[in-house]
Each structure stands twice: as C-alpha cells, then as structure tokens.
Amino acid sequence: MIHFKGVFFFNRQQIKKGKMEAKQFYQTEMSLNRYGLKITSELNRNIRAAIQKDKNSNDLESNVREILGHIYLVNQYLLKKIEKLGGLLNEGLVNQENEYVESDLNLVETMLNVSIFKITSCTEFNVPVYSSLEELELRLAVQFRKLVILSNTAPSEFANNYKTEMKVIPGIKLDIYQLIYFAMKHSGHHLGQISTLIRIEEVLDSNYSVAN
After folding, report:
1. pLDDT tens digit sequence for 60-110
2. Domain span holding position 156
C-alpha cells in the first residue's frame, strides 16, 4: 500500500489579503485535503483487491487498467491547466482587486451529476496506457498528491478572480479550486466503477463456489 505521510496537511502561507476569518478561509482547502485522502485510500484498496482477484480473472485486470489509464490521462490534462493557472495567480498576473469569496464546490457536484454519464470523453483520454496495475497506482497516487499540494499553495485571497474552461465541458469556467475538485471528483467517480467491478467479480466467485 502506498502511503504519503504528511501529504495531506500543510502549513498554509500567511494570508495578506481578505477579511474573512481563518476558519472560513481554510474551508475549501480542508474539503480538498479530506477528499484527496479519501480517493487515495480508495485507490490503494481497489488496486489491492483487483490484484488479488486478477489471479482468477484476466478480464477484471484489463477493465481496471483501462479505467485507471483514463483517470491518469484526464488528470494529466487538468494538472497542466491547474499548474498554469496557479502560476498566473502566484505571479500576480491576474486581477487582484476583488475580495476573496469561498469557491463554490457545489457547482462541480452539479456539473458531474448532470453530465458525467452523457459526455463522451475526448479520444485523447481513452488511448491505452501500457502500465501494470502497480505502476498505475503509483502514477495516480503522485497525481493526487500534486492536486492536494496545489490546493494548499493556491493564493486563496484572489483565486476567484480568474477562471478558465475545460475541453471536456466547454462553456463553463472554473476557478483553480473548482478545477482541482473536478479532477478529484472525476477520479472518485471512476474509482467507484472499479469498486463495482470488484464486487461483481466477488459475487460471481461466490456463485461459482456454491455451484461446485
């Protein structure tokens, strides 16, 4: 199992702008920290279960690798956008006049609940990733770590002043925290699919054992 001790809780940079109390200031970051920890735990658990079940099912490994590869490719795309946006914010290259407003993560929830089963992924996010389950586990764990670090280093006090679009859902602009949450929630959705595949495999194994 992969562990990153201390990854999910960092000392925040001293806030120089904004009038909100510290507890409110950290609300978004705390939510992202908790969810980052949750999906990393799910990743570890699913990989362990998939490797164990793979002894009896080659189809399960193939399906799990396909899903993990998709998560990895989408996250690579989103991380590039998030890192670029974070750079612009930290360099002060965007408007810094507006006061801080807590990011609306519920917008991301709504977007995914309404569209995740309807949007056809871009072909570039569905190309085969030729890596083992263990290699994909490591790659994704590193990505999740980066997302949490970015959520803790983004300049909260003017993060809302600049938003950008994603090619997967054109026409909707998100701030840096919403982009990070989108990447995490998208990953969590597909990790849930893997959990379902593993449960189905367990039921089939159980039925086979009873029949014999």
Report:
1. 888 999 999 999 999 999 999 888 888 877 776 665 555 666 778 888 888
2. 45-205
Q: Is residue 212 part of a domain?
A: no
- pTM score: 0.78
Q: Residue 95 has what DSSP assignment?
A: -
Task: Please report, as a single letter, which amino acid is at residue 56.
Answer: N
Six-digit token string for 64: 């799990």
Q: Let me know if residue 88 belongs to a domain.
A: yes
Instruction: Single out the residue of 43, 15, 44, 4 nearest to residue 152, CA to CA.
Output: 15
Specify whether the backbone of 92 is left (phi greater than 0), alpha (psi in -120 to 50) or beta: left
Largest interatomic CA distance in the chain: 71
The answer to whether position 114 is within a domain reads yes
- pLDDT tens-digit map of 45-59: 999 888 887 666 668
Query: How many domains would you assign to the chain?
Result: 1
- Non-local (6+) Cβ contacts of 131 within 8 A are 65, 69, 139
CA–CA separation, 100 vs 78, rounded Å?
Answer: 23
The residue with greater pLDDT, 162 or 64, is 64
